[in-house]
Amino acid sequence: MFKKLPITFTALAITLFSGPLFAAEASVDTGNISWILTSTALVLFMTIPGLSLFYGGLVRSKNVLSILMQCFAITCVVSVLWLVCVYSLCFGDGGSLNGFIGGFDKAFLGDLLNNGISGSIHETTFSMFQLTFAIITPALIVGAFAERMKFSAMLIFSCIWLVVVYAPVCHWVWGGGWLQEMGVLDFAGGIVVHITAGAAALVAALVIGNRNGFPKTPMPPHNLTMTITGAGMLWVGWFGFNGGSALAADSTASMAILVTHMSAAAGAMMWVALEWIKFGKPSALGAVTGMVAGLGTITPASGFVGPAGGLVIGLVAGFICFNCTIFIKQKLKIDDSLDVSPVHGVGGIIGTIMAGIFASAGLGVFRGVGYAEGVDMASQVGVQALGVVATIAYTMIVTFIILKITGALTKGLRVCEEVETQGLDTAEHEETGYNM
Questions:
Q1: In a domain, 114, yes or no
Q2: Is the pTM higher than 0.90?
Q3: How far apart are CA 107 and CA 109, in angstroms?
Q4: pLDDT band at residue 362 using 50, 70 and 90 as cut-offs
Q5: How many domains does the chain have?
Q6: 10 lies in some domain
Q7: Are the beta carbons of 104 and 167 closer than 8 angstroms?
Q8: d(CA 315, CA 28)
Q9: Which of 121, 153, 257, 271 can pair with 243 through a Cys bridge, CB separation 3.0 to 4.6 Å?
Q10: Residue 281 in contact with residue 307, Cβ under 8 Å?
């Protein structure tokens, strides 16, 4: 009897590993899965604590907790909405509307429970990675109306905006929608994340109005140490943002990380140099803002350019975003509190257009790793420009409508003047960031 046990166990093993489970796992690459899971953690790290600390240090001390709370709350509500329907709207089958938006076939992630595979990774891995992008996008918009929007209004706006703006645009570009069919290049979210956030931020700043005292009253950051700490976390986390978008641990991911780093460094250097020339002294705030401009601008092109191309994109980002920040705040006097539109929005536009340039043949050292072989520069730049214009137009119009609806539901988007003077930490949350 016992002599037959090895034969029995061998037969059982063959039965188990030759069945559907083994077949489902056959095309999965565990190395790729490990890298995307690591990237997922890095991108979530960008929002909490990275973006939270970056934004928290930039506001006045009486509002620091409100910013941290907004980023944290957005992480929670977006995660639940992602499970319920947003992932499905982004990446599901929309039937006759598939060019515009996905359907509900993946609602509650039920389809993923059957061990579905996306490329060489599980769809559960892909879904979690994409969730972190959906989290950081509305969190970026918070910077436009910092220190003056009601917490309730922020929550309602963010939830509606995620479903009505983020999900369709994500589907257009990455979920099989009309822009993807046209061949638009957006490696890691120049259109999906940065242009949508930047366009929405500009509309939000205009609709909600300037902070009391802006621009005459100085409103300096209350804790630049906190801001620079958050900026460092963003820089590191961005390697997962761009490198993970290759969806594999391969040469494209490696190149994306390399060019991301070069663009961040170049953006920071350019911004500091311009400050030094214009104001006589370089600032730490300028350095980290230029770094973020370089990171946001390289994002759509990160899988298509080489290191020299990343350097050029970073320098261009630092120069243009620096001047756009001055133009929006000082010339137009629009109080986009934490410079979301001139840094992320403008950076996303520049990077999306430059992706079409640097992905084309004949640029030598400036070209990337051949991810977009056969791209014709003129036609590709046209497609990129169409994607930019369509996304800006759709985002701005729909964001305006959402803000008006939210204002009606919450009896005003904005806290009263007394609360704004007192600070949102105490008035909205009965807490203070510092107890000294």
A1: yes
A2: yes
A3: 5
A4: low
A5: 1
A6: no
A7: no
A8: 39
A9: 257
A10: no
